[in-house]
Amino acid sequence: MSRYARLRRRLAPVAFGVAIVLLARESCNKQARTHATIVLDLQDQAATVQAVDAELVVGEDTIVFHRAAMPGMRIGPCKFTVAMPAEDGELHVDLETAGVHRQVVRLIHADEGGTVTVPLGAAATATR
Asked: Which of 16, 65, 95, 100 shows the smallest number of beta carbons within 10 Å?
């Protein structure tokens, strides 16, 4: 038996074991995430909002959401599901209403399987 074959026979089980450990670790880390639904509540201003861009920053992760109304139509419901590495995050929302651009920042806390409603109606009408 050659030296390469002996080395391969000894290292193959070790490499297989390391691969199994890495897969298990990745699986455990994914389950440690907080799963929630974020609802951007435009309230009575939904008729005037033309586009919504949201960016949820949790630690080093960033989750992006975009919704725009078709010309002549109202914007639909603005909600998205997230898998956050922690329960707390910072939500940056950009609202486009009748040519006016608004930026809103909200701190959010999400519980596992919960729904976080972020009221934005007043922010859509606020003036700068």
From this structure: 16
Of 56, 58, 44, 121, whose CA–CA distance to 93 is shortest? Answer: 56
61 and 22 in a common domain: no
Which amino acid is located at 38 in the chain? I
Residues 25 and 48 grouped into a single domain: no
Q: What residues are paired with 63 via a beta bridge?
A: 56
Write the pLDDT tens digit of every residue in 41-77.
Answer: 988 888 888 999 999 999 888 999 999 988 888 888 8
Contact present, 115 and 37 (Cβ < 8 Å): yes
Structural domain count, the chain: 2
Q: Cβ(101)–Cβ(123) under 8 Å? A: no
pTM of the model: 0.69
CATH assignment of the domain containing 45 = 2.60.40.2580
pLDDT at 103: 92
For residue 115, what is the enclosing H or E element?
strand 115-119
